[in-house]
Amino acid sequence: MEFKLIGPTSSRIMNINWLEAQTASGSFVVKSGHAPLIAMLAPNKELTVELHDGSTTIITIVNGILEVTRTSITLLLTHE
Predict the structure, then answer these.
(1) Alpha helices (H) along 1-80
(2) Is residue 79 pLDDT above 90, yes or no?
(3) Alpha-carbon span 63 to 55, nearest angstrom
(4) Is the pTM of this model over 0.85?
(5) Which of 21, 47, 64, 79 has the fewest CB atoms inside 10 Å of its own CB, making it the most exposed?
(6) Strand 45-51 and strand 72-77: pairing?
(7) How many angstroms separate the CA atoms of 32 and 34, rounded?
(8) In this predicted structure, what is the pLDDT of residue 25?
């Protein structure tokens, strides 16, 4: 699954297996085939991502909006 991380000054694309995000109402995991959604992430929380090679990466998000489709995830950051 393709994960696009887009910030005000930089962006990157990663191949991932799953992603765990936190919103104001709780956390959820996104895997390939997930129902489409748009969510505002909880500020100053961690985003956990399992990369395609099986390693896990944790990214601290200041503030952002997550868009999920059945085949990709896009995270728009308001701050880096």
Answers:
(1) none
(2) no
(3) 24
(4) yes
(5) 79
(6) unpaired
(7) 6
(8) 92
